[in-house]
Amino acid sequence: MDVVLFLVFAAIAVGCALNLVLQTHPISSALSLIGVMGSLAVLYLLLGGEFLAAVQLIVYAGAIMVLFVFVIMLLNAGSEKRPSKKVLRTAVALPLLFTLAGVAAYIMATQVPRTEAVRFGGFTAGPYEVGRALFTTWLLPFEVTSILILIAILGAVVLARKEI
Amino acid sequence: MNFYLLTLLKMALTAFVLLTCCAYAVWVERKVLAHIQLRPGPYRVGPHGLLQPLADLIKLLTKEGIVPSYANPFFYLLAPWLAVTLALSAIVVIPFTPEFELFGVRTAIGLTDLNIGILFLLALSSLGVYGIAIGGWASNNKYSLMGSLRSSAQMVSYELPLAMAIASPLLLVNTLNLRQIVEQQGGFYFGFLPKWTIFAMPAPQILAFLIFLIAAFAETNRVPFDLPEAESELVAGFHTEYSSMMFASFFMAEYANIITICCVATVLFLGGWHPLWPAQYGSDFVPTVLLAAAGLILLYHAAQAARGRRWDRFTFPVFGVLLLALSPVFLVPMLKPVLIPFFWFVAKAGFLVFVFIWIRGTLPRFRYDQLMRFAWTFMFPLALANLLATGLIVALAG
Based on CB atoms within 10 Å of each CB, which residue in A47, A83, A90, B140 is the most buried? Predict the structure, then answer.
């Protein structure tokens, strides 16, 4: 059951990611990205990271992507023009693409540790565990990130202030 | 096997009850608004317009569904589906009653019991904006686009105070599971004051409740924050181009959202199924007394129905006898542990739905810049201060 669900949602994630690149209209691309995020949330859920899954949906799909869609609508961005098809370009680009994919696959296979440790539902990453880890083991990185985000907010305010 | 059968039955029942409630919420809203404005409201279809929702449904079903020629058909059709699916699926985590035994299975009214229930609700409500945003954009109409732009900005802004208002009672109950949240609120201070989070002792959450309620109005696009469908400026806002069942889906989503958010407020702040005062002072007899009183009032009015309302002489006694017959059901000892808590839950949530309608009948609409300024310069700092104060008090109280 877990494997079937994993395959289904991994396929949806990859399909949406491909669609994101292939679509010409920015709104379609943005919505495909939401699909990717939703299926990633399901994958987190399968691994046992229920808190992460919910936060993925709330923060990425529910807040950040809404702003993306909002900006696209506000600017009323139209479809992008497809570049004219040239056979020579395709003939050069395709082998390069396969080479890059091959190199990436090789590096992944050799460098990244084996995935035997990953089991469905093998983690307990509920709100309690995540909160405890954030405020004990990872307290310093957590606070530094908060300050970084605060600086980014202040920067945005300063930049926007000039316009008003 | 029993478990699966029961769950399937419960799913079908929940969907049926929720959809019926949505339809009759429209009837109640029209009636209440009408009486606020000294009008009779829907009156012709059935006794006192009781069959009006059915007539509306038939009307909407038989209308032609038009896809405008300049619209983007895929997203145009996706939007109402998205809106109604997300709105209806939020009800699954709401616990309506404590657990009881049925056919050898421990169950409760309410579908699932997620341990991140409240986060699930937040996720669904934050995704709900896509239905409106995409619908308005795909219609390819300036008014619709303005409506959906307003809606997305408004919902993103009001989600912050909403989430913070939710977070402060969570500090008191220390769990994200909705059933445990309600169970934590059982009992009474000094024998009469209920231990709901709105009264909870180290830090009463009255302020958080008010912030939650105001943000809920904005999240469900209701008056006074119904800028996305402000008819004096935007025709009908994001659903200007929609017709037939696609329009009905948006309508249904709005009412399902109202019902769900009232249930969430009941669970988080008003103690879910716990009664208003202890059972030893007779809170168990409230539903019986209420139903019997309603039945008797109907019978009294039937006896002196006005000449203009001939049908009232037949329909009032029928409903009166029905209510009188229903009232002793709440006294049956076997059904009591389910029905009494369920009554209290429905009473609280129903009262909140009434408040939603009441506000709609009373308050004028905000201007758009006022709406945004109110969210960012008043609601957000207030919610933040309330969260910090609650956290401090809870930490000091140990």
Answer: A47
pLDDT at A103: 92
- The whole-angstrom distance between B377's CA and the closest CA on chain A is 14
Cα dihedral angle (B124, B126, B131, B137), rounded to 10 degrees? Answer: -160
- How wide is the angle at C-alpha B262 spanned by C-alphas B377 and B51, nearest 5°? 130
pLDDT digits 0-9 by tens, B146-205:
888 888 888 888 888 998 888 888 888 888 888 888 888 877 777 777 888 888 777 788
Residue A70 has pLDDT above 90, yes or no: no
DSSP B65: -
- What is the per-residue pLDDT across B353-373, written as a single tens digit (0 to 9) for each? 999 989 888 888 888 888 888
In a domain, B77, yes or no: yes
Report if residue B336 sits inside a domain. Answer: yes
| Chain A residues 96-155 within an 8 A CB cutoff of chain B | 126-127
Q: Most A CBs within 10 Å: which of B74, B75, B85, B130, as the mutation test of the A interface?
A: B130
Number of H helices, E strands in chain A: 7, 0
- Please state, in angstroms and rounded to a whole number, the distance separating the CA atoms of residues B29 and B261: 16
> Which residue among B127, B152, B176 sits closest to A61, beta carbon to beta carbon?
B127
DSSP-based helix, strand, coil % in chain B, nearest 5: 70, 5, 25
- Give the residue carrying structure tokens 């990271």: A49
**Is residue B177 left, alpha or beta, with left meaning phi > 0 and alpha meaning psi from -120 to 50?**
beta
pLDDT in the model for residue A148: 95
Complex ipTM = 0.76
Position B74 scores a pLDDT of 85
Q: Cβ neighbours of residue A31 under 8 Å, at least 6 residues apart?
A: A69, B75, B130, B134
> What domain range is B75 assigned to?
2-274+332-397
Query: Quick check: is B281 in a domain?
Result: no
**Is the CB of residue B108 less than 8 Å from the CB of residue B177?**
no
Q: Give the Cβ contact number of residue A12 at 10 Å.
A: 17
CATH for the stretch A2-125 = 1.20.120.1200
The tokens describing B216, both together, are 């809920």
For B181-218, the three-class secondary structure string (H helix, E strand, C coil) is HHHHCCCEECCCEECCCCCCCCCCCHHHHHHHHHHHHH
Is B166 near chain A, with CB under 8 Å?
no
CA B83 to chain centre: 16
Per cent of chain A over pLDDT 70 is: 90
Question: A62 contacts in B (CB within 8 Å)?
Answer: 122-123, 125-127, 129, 159
Pairwise pLDDT comparison (A113 vs B326), residue with the higher score: B326
Q: Say how many domains are in chain B.
A: 1
